[in-house]
Write a structure and sequence with these properties.
The protein contains 15 helices and 3 strands. The chain is mainly alpha-helical and 432 residues long.
């Protein structure tokens, strides 16, 4: 292909390629004849024409964009658009108070709803925490003495309480439950020491602060607070001293609390000296060390326990001897009454049971004949019935049934009211 044919073709392709090319640019190439291309027309002049046409179009476009007529048309367009809400050029109506307050009221409602929801969620969260803490304290007290179960309960409830620092609160509720539900003694002190190792309370200052919080919760329960002081002073003495637990009682002085603590210790040792069978024996040295009791005080309290035990046994023996004497006396009276029944004679109808002088009231005991070898009471006829016997000294009256007079008038019989002998009684006859 000839070299002079390539340049016109490239120039022609550049002129005809864009569909949006202005007509002025396309004209020189459109009017070119095939003969011009074939004869090798000078392409330099054609390229110059194309460049000049492009520059002219660019200048015309730039100048047309700055014409006043275009700017005026834009301003007229903006001025011709009426403002929103206006009809026929009239101004919009003034909004009412409720329309103005609608947006702030809606915002306030949203803020209030969010606040109430947050407060309710926080309340439920705190309530759940309080319930879990109470359950934790009860579980720990239930498993006192079993270190493995206590550690498992601590890990379980700590994970259930969620994020945050709950160790201090957990220890506080445990202290309160321990003082309220567990009996005082060496076992309670040992269990508290185990709990301290589980909670890892190595800082005495932090432990003292927790003790103060527990004391504040127990101010209205002085007896429970007194138990807490007893156990804490022996399980964690440094922290208890820093917390000054004996001064946390609202109505008791320091001296009163000290006296109560001493009495509690002595009573506890006395109970430990005596077992369930009533045997008295000294307490081992390890328990004395846990309770903080000296050997001299332990010996003194042991002697008091032994002395009290002997006094109780002596009183019990004296009471048993008294009951035995009363029983023997009753049996002697029964035997005497049975034996004296043999001295009665068969009484005739309307006669006296005493065989004395008929003119003498009641007769005499010495006049009664002795019935030999008689083991049964005297037989009295049924017609005699019940007789009335009256004490002439005080008027006391007996109504023995027929055949049972010997039970009332045995040897040594006396009036139950005035103590007169049986000679003072007279037979008033049968009772109708």
């Amino acid at each position: 292909m000839p070299k002079n044919f390539i340049v016109p073709c490239v120039a022609g392709f550049a002129a005809y390629a864009p569909s949006t090319r202005p007509a002025a640019i396309r004209t020189p190439f459109a009017t070119m004849s095939k003969e011009a291309f074939g004869k090798g027309v000078n392409c330099g002049s054609s390229i110059e024409l194309v460049a000049a046409a492009q520059q002219g179009d660019a200048r015309r476009i730039a100048v047309s964009g700055l014409q006043p007529q275009a700017e005026g048309s834009q301003q007229q367009q903006y001025a011709g658009v009426p403002p929103p809400g206006s009809v026929g050029g009239t101004p919009p109506p003034t909004p009412t108070f409720f329309q103005k307050a609608r947006a702030p009221f809606m915002g306030l409602t949203i803020v209030a709803s969010a606040t109430v929801a947050a407060w309710q969620s926080n309340r439920l969260y705190k309530q759940r925490q309080s319930t879990l803490l109470d359950e934790f304290a009860a579980t720990m007290v239930f498993h006192l003495g079993d270190e493995a179960e206590m550690r498992a309960a601590y890990s379980l409830f700590k994970s259930q309480l969620g994020p945050g620092r709950f160790t201090g609160r957990m220890f506080t509720v445990f202290l309160t439950a321990l003082a309220r539900d567990a009996p005082i003694g060496a076992t309670a002190v040992t269990n508290l020491r185990t709990a301290i190792s589980i909670f890892r309370l190595s800082d005495d200052a932090a432990a003292a602060k927790l003790l103060e919080e527990s004391a504040v919760e127990l101010e209205r329960q002085p007896s429970v607070l007194n138990k807490l002081v007893f156990v804490a002073e022996r399980a964690m003495p440094t922290a208890a001293a820093m917390a000054k637990l004996r001064t946390k009682f609202p109505n008791w002085s320091f001296d009163t609390v000290t006296a109560l603590q001493r009495a509690m210790l002595e009573n506890l040792y006395r109970e430990l000296c005596e077992d369930d069978l009533g045997n008295v024996s000294p307490v081992d040295a390890e328990t004395l060390a846990v309770l903080g009791l000296s050997e001299a005080d332990a010996n003194r309290l042991l002697a008091e326990v032994v002395e009290k035990k002997e006094e109780e046994e002596a009183a019990k023996a004296a009471k048993a001897a008294e009951e035995e004497r009363a029983r023997q006396l009753e049996e002697a009276l029964e035997r005497a009454a049975t034996q004296n029944a043999m001295t009665y004679k068969t009484k005739e109808a309307g006669g006296s049971i005493f065989d004395g002088d008929d003119d003498a009231v009641g007769g005499g005991v010495d006049d009664l004949p002795v019935v030999p070898d008689t083991t049964s009471p005297p037989q009295v006829s049924a017609g005699d019935g019940t007789h009335e016997f009256e004490c002439t000294d005080c008027g006391y009256i007996l109504f023995p049934a027929a055949g049972r007079e010997f039970k009332f008038f045995g040897e040594g019989f006396s009036c139950p009211q005035c103590g007169s002998a049986r000679d003072a009684f007279v037979d008033n006859g049968p009772v109708e």
